[in-house]
Structures are given as structure tokens and as C-alpha cells.
């Protein structure tokens, strides 16, 4: 790569071509010419051509010698189409596109399965592991309803094994035995499987490949038992649509360590279902060699129909629809048009009839172009663009203003895409628009800005698209996670007011739509709000009127807000029989729902004057309470708030004018602290804190606080009121809002050491932080930590845990990550001590549901932990098994 030693213009040329290449599918081809580049960068055409040709000679750009000449960024093209450019000479852009699309279609093994990286990702991972497991793979049982794709997964598993050179590269290496065909002739089935009169059977012939025994439950128990005796050193896949325990022999089941439950179509996301529909329409288009278009109504009907026959019925329905379209005049048209009336009768009957006589969306959707609107690909590309530009900003290649301008431009294009290209509208979206319009009304009123109904429409479509996609485009790993964090932190710092308003909007959306906006969506809000930069006049002070009675506070607030022409006061009416602690809780939640410096409470007499004494500490605001509230006082205070007086001055002048008394409780400065938590007891937490303290190069002024997990819940409020917690570290996450948590296993596996160092940057200089890093690596070895955590023999318990985890991975048919294994070592060592000391976790929040739904896991865990329970003479309760399950599947 030629990134080193470039001048500023060369960097601009490189970045311009790369960014536009990443948008190649929707960009105008003219942007890839020297003329366009020269105009964008304000350089001569000759200079532009010179730079472009230099990058082409270096192998960075691809050049198409047509008229005009085009240049593309090779790596960006390869990443966009997920392929390798083996060919470098093309006569035209059209030829390049055709080549890239054909290359992208050449998918390998599991990539051919729609959802291999989403709804089927776990099942695919199980099959991969079973094929890879040394030395000769593991037997697999595929279970699930008919039509879910078990046979497809079996064949793709063989293709994967062949591609990885795990089996001989023989095109005939996939052997299929359909048990149903021989259900009535068990002796003939035996001969086919095991051979007869010197001729090898399938069991022997498939030893260097993969044998797929389809619907094994149709074989009698005797034959199943015979197969179970010959499962060593081979790759064999079974499938069944029936209950395993009722239809398979116990002996065979015990010999199959990997059980893959293929999900029904109904349980997969809407986006994945849409991808399946488009995939099979495209396959039908290729088969009949005709372009296919589908109406929005027909597509919606297919999406909304519950296919009891799963993917197989979906494929059949698509073929039937195409046949009907062809029979009803489609043979005369260039493109086959599938509309609602061409659907099979059972799907047609399920179409919801509406009486909406407005404009009907009769747009026809080209199947070949639908892939760009499926899932969250567009959002993901948008977020990746944010990260790339942030990286350039960090390297000095962009100013902050340029970064924002480019982001705003791309956000505008994304919003246009949602409105004009995605063009979705339904009752759910319209209902969300109504809620968002009310949210915007409150925000506009509060901050003197104008978020429009059009933006509510765009935001509703964005949220709806995310709900359908079922994934998070802002979730990234490794280096990209660091960049993502840095990008978000930058905008939080540079666009403080915009981020505060975005947080308030996100909070109201969460409260009213029960939808949590991800980081990308919050950044999109910030980009939209940036147009109001300098106009956002969010008040530093919020005010609430609280009175005894049924409507006193509300009446005062309404009159004052209308008189002043701005909503300044919220109100809480307190009937005489209301417990004041209920009102205190309302006020506490009110204070924490806004990012402000000051809160004023205007109260009448009595217990309300000391309401702050009933609230949890750590409010993070200056709280002013003034009594003897009246309409006149509220008008006076409202005027002073509009004049942006300080809270102390407001209270002092208002009290003199109204003969009232007030109290001002100023925000207290909290001491910095690190909190250590253990699921065993506070002594263990103290031991871990000592390890941490011994790793520091010198003593620093930070409090180290240690708590046992359950005890912490009782003291949480007092801790937060006294201390500013830098971060929490330990073996179990206490879920303290807005407080970072670092798992002990993340320190041991070196995943979060840099994060821990960052929290201490105000206390240690760079050299001291590096010394701290080295000390952590030495002190926080797994062996050392376990010796600190448990009273048991660390060597012995680790030996047992290692053996147990190996058995558990085989039983579950999956390999755990290094971080998960370290975490389970810590968790299980603590678990063993709890059992030995007779202090186990005796309950789990979803224990009954867990017992009924996870019997397979309970049985597997009980067997795998038998060495531990036998050696230590203890029993493993269901509640503890449930926590192990949570750790494995939610890690």
C-alpha cells in the first residue's frame, strides 16, 4: 500500500476515490473520472490524471480505458462485493459490474444458506465445529420441523469439509441414505448401509466423505443401535423431524454429541424472511431466464403469511405464483409480473382487506434490485462511513467541521433512501409517526427548535427498518470497536447540547415505543440537530410545582405556561391520602430524566418542604425548594428563568417578593473510587482489590471499595451518593447504570487492560501506566487469581474445571472463546466453593421456565459436572446450572 509519504493532495485523491468506490452501487459513474475529481478538489485535470495514474501503477486503483477513463479503488471494490479481483482489464464499467456481480454470486459452502451469518449463525457454527473436530469430526443430529432446510445444511457441511480439505475432494463424496424409502424393508436397508456378499455398504464407502442419514427415525431400533457401533473416526449426519427421545434409540443418541436444532421459518427475523423470498424469486428468474417483478402488495402478503411448511412451502409458493403469472398472460411480456392475484389461494385468503381509498402504491419491485434494500446493509455502510471519516479526523486528514459536513451529507442521502427508495408505509409506521410527532412537539417547545413532521416520518421508517432487520449495525469488534467508541465520545464532547437533546429524544422513544435507539441512530439524530447549532437554548434549570389537592399544581402550571408563552413548569398534584414517598420517587425520576444543572421545586406547606430527605442521594444537580407557592410566585420565577438568572439569585429574590422560605441543596463533590464485587463474599473482593493495589506503581488517592454481590444491592444508593465510581471490577456485573464494568476474566485475558489504564490516566503518567500494565500481567494470572478467590486447592479445582469444560463443549457441540473459558473457570471455582460451604445460589429469576425449556442443557451439565460433584461430595442445584447457562449463552 502507498499510504506512507503522501502529500495532502495525494491523500485527498486517494480518499475521494475510496469513499466513492464504497458507494459504487448507487454512485453516478461520472464521479470516478479525472474531470469530476479535478472539480471536487480544485486542481487541474492534468494533475488529477497524473495522480490517478500513479495510484493505478502502484496497484491501488483499477483503471478502465474507455471514454471517459474511470478509476476505482481496488480494495474498496473487493470489500464491497466480498470477492477478489482476479481480472484487472475491463472494456467498460458495465463489464466490470457484470464481473463483480458474477464473482459475488459464487458463494462457498455455508454462505449459500440465507441467514448463515444471522438467524442460522449458531447452527452453522455447530456444523462447522462438527466437521472440523479432530481427528475425524463428530456425528451430528439435525432436528427440526419438515421443510426447515436440514438436508441443505447437511450438504453444505460436506461442501465445507471438502473446501477445508477435511475430506477427500471427491465430487461424489456426499452420500445420502433416505430411511423413509426403506422403512418397510429393514433387511434391505441393512444391506445398503453395511454391505452384502463382499460389496461395501454406504457406511464403509462414505468413510472418506460425509454420510447423510435422512429421517433416521424411520429405521428400527435394532438398525439404529447397529449404526451407533460404527460412529468412530467418521463424519456422519443424521436428521429427524420427530421427538428425539421417543423415536431414536437411547444407544444412538448417547453416541451423537452434536445436536443442531434447525429453527422453523416463523422464528426467523422478518428481514431474513424477506431475503429468502428474494433469493428464491431470483433463483426462479435464473431458471426460466426471465426478469421477474413483484408488486408491493404481493411481497407484503408473502412476508405476513405464516408458512406451516417452512422454507419448502415458501419455495413452492413462489414457483406457483410465477406459474400463475405466466399462465395469465405473462408469456407475452418481457418481464414476468407477480401480483397479489397470482399468489396461492391460502396466501391470497390471508390478505388483509382495507377501506383506505387514498393513493394506492402500485409500484413494481424489480427482484434483481431488491437486495440493496434488505436488512440493515445501508445502515451498516453508513456507520462504517462515520468510523472511516473519524479515523481520518484523528490522523489530521479532516477538520471537525469537514467531518460533520460529510456526515450530514451522507445522513441526508440515507434519509432520501428511506423516503424515496425504501418507500415503505403501513399502519405501524403511521402509528410510530404519531408518537414521534408528540415527542418532537415537546422537544421543540423545550429547546426552541423545529423538528418537522417530515423528520418524524423518516425516523419512524428508520426505527421500523431496524426492527425488521433484527441486528445492530453499530456492533463491531476489535479495532473498529475502539474507533466506534472514539467517534461517539468525540461527538459527545464536541456536540454536547445536540447529544443531550438526542439523549432526551431517545429516552422518550424508549419510554413510549419501548425501543432502544442504538449508537448509530443517536448519531443520526445529532447530525440532524447540528443544523440548529447555536439555536438550541435548552434551559439549565427545570421547574416543578407540587401541591396538596387534586388540581392545584396543574392549574397554576397551565396558567403560568400559557401566560409566558413557553412550557417552563411541570406539575404534580398530591391528593391528601397520598404517601409522600410516592411523590418523592416521582420527583427523583423527573430529575434524572433531564440533563440539567438545576431543578426548582415550588411546593406548598408541610412535609413537601423536606421532600429531598426522602429521595436517594447522588442527584447530580443543584436542588432548590421554595414554599408558599402561588400563581404570582410561579410567574415571577418563570420570568427569572427566561432571563437565565442563577438558581441562587432566583430563590433569593422570589422569597423576598413572596415572603417565602427556601433551601438550596448544592451538588456535592464526590470522591473517586473503584468498586470490587464478588459473588462469594466481601473478603474475596478485598483480596482482588489487594492484587489490584499491589499492581499500582505508587499509592494514589482513589478509594477501593469491596462488596459481596447481594449485599451491594442494599448499599448501592449510599455508595453512589458518596463516591464517583470510576469503574466496577469483579466476577459478576451488578448492573450499575452509567458505571463501566470490567470482568475479572477480561483483565486476565488482557482484553480490557488498556481500558483500565485509561480510567487511571488522571492519576498516573504514561510511564507509570506502563509499569501498572506490566504489574497487572504478572499479578492477574489465572492461577494467581483463583488462589486469591477460593479456599480450595487451586491446582486441583482448576484441573477438575478444565476437564468439565472440555466435556461440556463436546456435549453442547460448540467451542467456547478464550474469554468465556477464563470466565467459566472463575465462575465455576466460586461455584464449587459455594457448594462446599453450603451457600449456593438457591434461586434463579427464570428457574421454572429454565427447567421446562432447557432440559437438554440440564442433563448435559449434570453429567459433565459429575466428577466435581463426586469428588467434593456435593449436589449441583438447578439454580446454579441456570447461571452457568446464562453465562455461556449471554456472554
TrEMBL record:
Keywords: ATP-binding, DNA-binding, Nucleotide-binding, Transferase. Residues 113-323 form the Sigma-54 factor interaction domain. SMART domains: AAA. GO terms for biological process: phosphoenolpyruvate-dependent sugar phosphotransferase system; regulation of DNA-templated transcription. InterPro entries: AAA+_ATPase, AAA_lid_NorR, P-loop_NTPase, PRD, PRD_sf, PTS_EIIA_man-typ, PTS_EIIA_man-typ_sf, Sigma_54_int. The keyword DNA-binding applies. Pfam families: AAA_lid_14, EIIA-man, PRD, Sigma54_activ_2. Residues 540-665 form the PTS EIIA type-4 domain. Residues 792-891 form the PRD domain. It comes from the Bacteria. GO terms for cellular component: membrane. The keyword Nucleotide-binding applies. PANTHER family: PSP OPERON TRANSCRIPTIONAL ACTIVATOR, TRANSCRIPTIONAL REGULATORY PROTEIN. This is PRD domain protein. It comes from [Clostridium] asparagiforme DSM 15981. The lineage of its organism: Bacteria, Bacillati, Bacillota, Clostridia, Lachnospirales.
Amino acid at each position: 500500500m502507498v499510504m506512507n509519504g503522501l502529500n495532502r493532495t495525494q491523500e485527498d485523491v486517494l480518499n475521494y476515490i475510496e469513499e466513492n468506490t464504497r458507494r459504487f452501487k448507487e454512485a453516478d459513474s461520472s464521479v470516478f473520472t479525472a474531470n469530476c475529481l479535478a472539480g471536487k478538489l480544485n486542481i487541474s485535470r492534468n494533475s488529477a490524471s497524473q495522480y490517478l495514474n500513479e495510484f493505478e501503477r502502484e496497484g491501488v486503483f483499477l483503471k478502465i480505458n474507455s471514454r471517459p477513463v474511470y478509476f476505482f479503488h481496488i480494495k474498496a471494490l473487493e470489500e464491497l462485493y466480498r470477492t477478489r479481483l482476479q481480472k484487472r482489464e475491463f472494456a467498460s464499467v458495465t463489464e466490470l459490474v457484470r464481473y463483480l456481480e458474477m464473482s459475488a454470486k459464487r458463494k462457498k459452502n455455508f454462505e449459500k444458506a440465507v441467514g448463515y451469518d444471522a438467524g442460522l449463525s449458531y447452527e452453522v457454527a455447530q456444523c462447522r465445529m462438527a466437521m472440523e473436530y479432530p481427528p475425524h469430526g463428530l456425528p451430528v443430529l439435525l432436528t427440526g420441523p419438515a421443510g426447515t432446510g436440514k438436508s441443505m445444511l447437511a450438504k453444505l457441511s460436506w461442501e465445507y469439509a471438502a473446501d477445508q480439505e477435511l475430506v477427500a475432494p471427491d465430487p461424489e463424496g456426499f452420500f445420502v441414505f433416505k430411511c423413509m424409502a426403506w422403512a418397510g424393508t429393514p433387511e434391505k436397508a441393512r444391506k445398503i448401509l453395511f454391505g452384502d456378499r463382499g460389496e461395501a455398504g454406504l457406511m464403509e464407502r462414505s468413510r472418506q466423505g460425509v454420510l447423510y442419514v435422512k429421517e433416521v427415525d424411520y429405521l428400527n431400533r435394532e438398525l439404529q443401535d447397529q449404526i451407533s457401533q460404527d460412529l468412530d473416526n467418521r463424519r456422519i449426519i443424521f436428521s429427524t423431524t420427530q421427538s428425539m427421545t421417543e423415536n431414536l434409540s437411547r444407544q444412538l443418541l448417547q453416541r451423537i454429541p452434536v445436536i443442531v436444532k434447525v429453527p422453523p421459518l416463523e422464528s426467523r427475523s422478518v428481514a431474513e424472511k424477506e431475503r429468502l423470498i428474494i433469493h428464491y424469486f431470483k433463483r426462479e428468474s435464473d431458471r426460466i431466464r426471465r426478469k421477474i417483478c413483484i408488486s408491493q402488495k404481493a411481497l407484503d402478503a408473502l412476508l405476513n403469511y405464516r408458512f406451516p411448511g417452512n422454507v419448502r412451502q415458501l419455495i413452492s409458493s413462489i414457483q406457483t405464483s410465477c406459474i400463475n403469472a405466466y399462465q395469465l398472460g405473462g408469456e407475452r411480456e418481457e418481464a414476468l409480473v407477480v401480483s397479489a392475484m397470482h399468489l396461492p389461494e391460502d396466501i391470497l385468503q390471508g390478505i388483509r382487506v382495507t377501506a383506505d381509498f387514498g393513493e394506492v402504491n402500485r409500484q413494481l419491485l424489480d427482484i434483481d434490485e431488491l437486495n440493496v434494500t434488505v436488512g440493515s446493509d445501508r445502515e451498516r455502510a453508513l456507520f462504517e462511513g462515520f468510523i472511516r471519516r473519524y479515523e481520518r479526523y484523528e490522523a489530521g486528514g479532516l477538520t471537525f467541521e469537514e467531518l460533520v459536513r460529510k456526515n450530514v451529507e451522507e445522513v441526508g442521502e440515507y434519509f432520501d433512501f428511506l423516503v424515496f427508495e425504501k418507500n415503505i408505509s403501513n399502519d405501524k409506521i403511521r402509528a410510530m409517526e404519531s408518537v414521534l410527532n408528540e415527542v418532537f412537539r415537546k422537544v421543540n417547545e423545550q429547546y426552541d427548535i423545529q423538528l418537522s413532521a417530515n423528520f418524524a416520518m423518516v425516523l419512524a421508517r428508520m426505527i421500523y427498518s431496524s426492527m425488521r432487520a433484527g441486528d445492530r449495525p453499530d456492533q463491531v469488534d476489535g479495532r473498529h470497536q475502539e474507533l466506534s467508541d472514539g467517534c461517539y465520545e468525540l461527538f459527545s464532547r464536541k456536540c454536547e447540547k445536540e447529544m443531550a437533546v438526542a439523549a432526551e429524544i431517545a429516552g422518550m422513544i424508549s419510554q413510549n415505543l419501548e425501543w432502544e435507539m442504538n449508537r448509530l441512530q443517536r448519531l443520526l439524530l445529532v447530525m440532524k440537530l447540528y443544523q440548529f447549532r447555536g439555536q438550541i437554548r435548552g434551559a439549565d434549570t427545570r421547574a416543578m410545582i407540587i401541591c396538596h389537592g387534586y388540581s392545584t399544581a396543574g392549574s397554576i402550571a397551565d396558567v403560568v405556561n400559557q401566560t409566558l408563552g413557553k412550557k417552563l413548569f411541570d406539575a404534580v398534584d398530591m391528593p391528601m391520602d397520598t404517601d409522600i414517598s410516592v411523590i418523592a420517587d416521582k420527583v427523583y425520576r423527573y430529575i434524572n430524566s433531564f440533563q440539567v444543572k438545576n431543578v426548582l421545586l415550588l411546593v406548598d406547606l408541610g412535609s413537601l418542604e423536606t421532600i429531598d430527605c426522602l429521595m436517594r442521594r447522588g442527584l447530580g444537580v443543584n436542588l432548590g425548594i421554595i414554599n408558599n407557592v402561588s400563581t404570582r410566585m410561579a410567574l415571577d420565577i418563570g420570568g427569572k428563568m427566561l432571563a437565565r438568572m442563577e438558581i441562587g439569585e432566583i430563590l433569593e429574590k422570589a422569597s423576598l417578593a413572596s415572603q417565602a422560605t427556601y433551601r438550596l441543596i448544592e451538588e456535592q463533590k464526590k470522591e473517586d473510587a473503584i468498586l470490587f464485587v464478588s459473588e462469594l463474599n466481601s473478603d474475596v473482593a478485598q483480596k482482588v482489590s489487594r492484587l489490584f493495589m499491589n499492581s499500582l506503581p505508587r499509592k494514589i488517592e482513589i478509594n477501593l471499595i469491596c462488596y459481596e454481590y447481594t449485599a451491594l444491592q442494599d448499599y448501592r444508593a449510599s455508595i453512589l451518593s458518596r463516591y464517583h465510581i470510576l469503574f466496577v471490577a469483579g466476577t459478576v456485573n451488578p448492573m450499575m447504570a452509567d458505571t463501566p464494568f470490567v470482568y475479572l476474566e477480561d483483565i486476565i485475558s488482557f482484553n480490557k487492560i488498556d481500558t483500565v489504564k485509561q480510567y487511571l490516566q488522571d492519576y498516573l503518567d504514561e510511564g507509570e501506566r506502563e509499569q501498572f500494565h506490566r504489574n497487572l500481567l504478572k499479578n492477574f494470572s489465572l492461577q494467581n487469581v483463583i488462589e486469591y478467590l477460593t479456599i480450595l486447592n487451586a491446582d486441583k479445582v482448576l484441573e477438575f474445571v478444565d476437564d468439565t469444560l472440555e466435556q461440556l463443549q463436546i456435549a453442547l457441540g460448540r467451542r467456547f472463546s478464550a474469554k468465556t473459558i477464563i470466565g467459566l473457570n472463575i465462575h465455576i471455582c466460586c461455584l464449587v466453593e459455594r457448594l462446599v460451604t453450603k451457600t449456593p445460589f438457591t434461586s434463579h429469576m427464570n428457574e421454572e421456565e429454565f427447567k421446562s425449556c432447557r432440559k437438554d442443557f440440564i442433563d448435559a451439565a449434570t453429567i459433565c459436572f459429575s466428577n466435581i460433584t463426586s469428588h467434593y461430595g456435593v449436589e449441583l442445584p438447578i439454580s446454579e446450572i441456570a447461571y452457568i447457562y446464562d453465562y455461556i449463552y449471554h456472554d
